[in-house]
User: What shape does this take?
Amino acid sequence: MINVCDIQVMKPLLAEHGFHFSKAKGQNFLIARWVPENIAVESGVDSSAGVLEIGPGIGPLTQQLALRAGKVCAVELDKRLAPILKQTVGEFDNLEIIWDDVLNLDIAGLVAEKFPGLRPMACANLPYYITSPILTALLEAECFDAVTVMVQKEVAQRIAAKPGSADYSAFTVFCQYYAEPEILFDVPAHCFLPQPKVTSAVITLRTRKNIPWDIADQDIFFRTVRASFAMRRKKLANGLAAGFSELGKSGAAEVIRRSGLDENVRGETLSIPQFAALSNEIVKWRMEP
Ligand code: SAM
Assistant: This one.
């Protein structure tokens, strides 16, 4: 197996194919072999797993996944990588490469078609320019056992943040609604070519089999969350009144009171069960004559 993380191997390989990195496609390739090895090991991929990889690049993580998984489907946008991947991962008969933009795919449909009888997992060193849309699509597909991805460290901290902390955001609540996150390890910038400006981190999101909160209307729940974070450091009632014009200031104060929350509470301190209670009161309030 070609060690694609060895810079003495990678540089001539890229040169042979006249390949130049595309910043626009978020191409920072791994040059430290311990990183893809650790991602594959710590994600828990084994022969019972069907793994969707996003952005194989020249295949460092793809190799490690294909060595362990029942099947790997790797989705890559940049067709210039085809002849290189043929050399680096062509030997694996449990690997299929799909040449497409991952955001164009019906992920749940693809997983059902490609991984029958296998435990679906997602693994990736993500292109950072579309981290949030890709994570959103992976979690909303509601078909993976776990999603293990490398992202910017600050994004990992945001995903795993606790209520009331500076990193806690609407995206935190979105991710933690679908999954339980755990930051696995940091990856310094010198592990990539070209080097990104930021430190990265690998995070695993173990998806919830059942949503453990009683949520009357999922759309209203997420609208409530977005409205609650829209005016940070202001009272929750202001954010809710702006996000739900039908409530107005007095309606907003009333649903906050009915949810058992303090009238001076700030949205960014609420836990998911508190957002659930609040959104359920908004649903009820909207149905009142
Ligand atoms: N996995 C490789 C590694 O770790 O060295 C490459 C990771 S690089 C950060 C991100 C990869 O995602 C690139 O190969 C890039 O071409 C690919 N990519 C970017 N946007 C994509 C998209 N919308 N759909 C699928 N792949 C994409």
Notes: The longest helix spans residues 272-287.
